[in-house]
Amino acid sequence: MTTTVENAVCTFCGCLCDDIRVEIENDRIVKAKRACANGRGMFMDYDPTPRKPRVAGKAVSWKQAVKACARILDDAESPLIYGLSSTSTEAQKKTVALADRIGAMIDTTSSVCHGPTGLAMQALGEATCTLGEVANRADLVIFWGCNPAEAHMRHFSRYSLTPKGRLVPEGRKDRTVWGVDVRPTKTSRMVDHFIQIDPGSDYEVLTTLRAMLKGYRIEAEQIGGVPLTQLTELAHAMKTCRFGAVCMGMGLTMTRGRDLNVRELFALVADLNSQTRFSVVPMRGHSNVAGADQVMTWQTGYPFAVSFAKGYPVYGPGEFTAVDVLARKEADAALIIASDPAAHFPRKAAAYLETIPTIVLDPEENLTARTAEIFLPTACAGIDASGTFYRMDNISIHAQAVVASGRPTDQDILQDIMEAMQT
Amino acid sequence: MIGIINGRVYDPCNGIDGKVRDIWVKDGRIVSPAEVDRSAADIIDADGMVVMPGGVDIHSHIAGGKVNAGRKMRPDDSRGHERPSRELSQSPRVYTRSGTGRSVASTFKTAYDYVEMGYTTVMEGASPPLMARHTHEEFEDIPILDKGGYILMGNNHFIMDCIRRNEKEKARDYVAWLLGATKGFGIKIVNPGGVENFKYKQNVTDLDDKVIGFDVTPRRILETLSWINDELGLPHVPHIHGLNLGLNGNADITAETLIAMTGREAHFTHLQFMSYGGEMGKPVRSAAEVTARVVNANPNITVDVGQVVFGDTTTMTADGPVQYRLHALTGNKWFNDDVEAETGGGVTPCVYRKSNPFNAVQWLVGLELFLLIEDPWRVYLTTDHPNGGPFTCYPQVIRMLMDRDFRMQAFEGISKLARKNALLPELDREYSLYEIAIITRAGTAKRIGLDWKGHLGVGADADITVYADMEDREAMFARPRYVFKDGVLVARDGQIVCERPGQTVYVSPDYDTAIEKEVRRHIEDNYTIAFEHYAVSEKELSNGRQVACKP
To answer: Considering only the top CATH level, what class is B1-54+453-509?
Structure first.
């Protein structure tokens, strides 16, 4: 028998598409209509069958696993908690509570994606808007260092390129679209004007645009490999639009200059608001990485890279960011939740992680789980667990589970671990 | 069961002005002595102490998108303002949560700071409907305190479309739906039409200016929402932040707005920011007399002050153009968030300096309003936290109001330019403890519409604060001896001793369900989330309390 769920929320990426029609047969999802390839993969590849937790290579009961987790955390002097970006805020809240209780260092995947965007925000602020403002108003959209055509596949149709809105009734026809990147991408093929800049020259190009908009004469004939005439055109488009939006991604945050690149973009957007209205839209990757920022911030005052070792939150990007903590071999135990650092961290950090007692909470046995001391196969928030998620523009949506769960949620297990602990 | 005996009780709702009375508590409520078995009761001897209902804040920014953007943007506000986690009991193990922050404190710290100051109920001043879920998520992490949120409606597309088409009944049904969907408590209006116009880099400056694309005026938005508020019988009244906030000469438009509401019930928030004289480009001066006069003459109007306190703080409002202007003026960092089809808003840090003539005048305006508005039941203590300063400065403001010498000492320290021709030295009024109890709990609870709070009569929630009676009123109000919430001792000598959840109050007015079809279409056409995902369900509130409407 097939059951259908309308308006399911896809918790794969920061778009949080909430119009998915899911078909279920025998507790497995067999169709995910309207979902993109990434979303379809998430819905259809997931097997919600309950699995036993694994401790030191052996399958054990949940009770035994929870006890083993409590022991590791009780014994740890300097535990690290990391991840959070693909689980619900309910689980994130519980995770920060655990970190507070045990005096852990806690960091989220922000530190390896849009952490620099957060630092730029702390330096300058951020002029932003919800995605509906882009859909309803934006007559100029710029994609800078991001490739939604492959990473946020429905961003174009739902938010930024084709939607028709009150002020853009003709949708795509009413928008001028620019792309800036170091190489042609699938996204660059969708824009009206593409500027290919030299790798590592984002900062220079952005500064040049700021200078142009402030009326300075630029003498160089090209900047970052771009003829000045092209930048003049872009600057003109920026100041003459009615409502502009620049969607920015890891092409800015994870290349040379990092937070300085983003700062320059944020400064440019703030400057533009003296002439027209302009917003920046950070293209957050994982489904609830924006929620991780939010929960960390309302509970601790800081978005990521926090240590509770002193009994209260201390902020230290570069100091308490997970890659740095691991590379310096400062953590003596780790709890990884809803992320896969072994697959994404630099080799040195990932190699050290293998040497310390590690607990992994994840719906899938990912690379980190395979070498971890303890693997806890929890429910997948958005599929067999309900929970709240924050879209890339910080609008929160409650995702109802679409299949029955035989698995415990992250927050249930974290609560059990806290109750089992001695300290 | 608890008895608080021998204390001098200030319970203005019941006309008790400093009489020695015993207060009895059972099952979280105030009860009559007959209901209590004294031998089984815990007795607090409050001999020589002052007993009041728990403090009730009518307007503060403590939770939601803007507040959290402020926290994130200001690690400098967190550093040096840390609160460690503390063990409350060993078995079972209970800890307070740690936190940071002064003007934009983390959620748990916000709760503890308020409670340790004797406050037990706080209303969040401005939540965009689309971000109500976020506000409620933070409420869940603000323990002990009871809270509720006002929902921003002054720039809402659906409402403005209805007004243009003269369909006020439809707007009424929508507002009822929206309050239920957001689990909000009341109607908030911020710079009606001006926030929408800011999306075109413009604003409104007059009640009859046009809202771009809607052909409606601020005046009609105010009138319609006020009519809707009445029709729905909401517990609170329209909560209004008017036009031209922070601008020289805005007292005239404020007075005009107050007069436009003649005959209607309305609350004007942070009146201090709306009561300036002078012209643009010329020195600002206080026009507290202008707005206070109108308030005094209109008994259906209440205000909270939004007192400025000198020092560093974070300003935040749904009034997007205000925050942009402040950023352009100061060069301080600036956060802005335009919210689809509803509203906008911004955040900018700010330092109020005694030596700065503008800031000094702002400080004067607030105090003058407190002293010129005659009826304490109609003027309430706020700093528009954190806009005028952090709520932790309330005790300082209380002392300013109760102690003229202290006030004048502070006056001597402000900018000479601001002192020139100032009215403040002529105002001899000193608030009594009874009046303080009105402006900080009795009056606010009544005006919010929380009849079971703000007093110590039988049946009221046993939210009680006991103060040592000290000559230094700042010290007295900063650190109460005992704070009870729902009859449970939650703070002693200014320190949390018990952690428990607080309630979230909300309304869910009745409406003609025919509106849902139109709302669905409106959301499908104008929003990027599905109709099904818009509403916050009751299940998402772990401790919600629906308050009845009286249409």
So the answer is: mainly beta
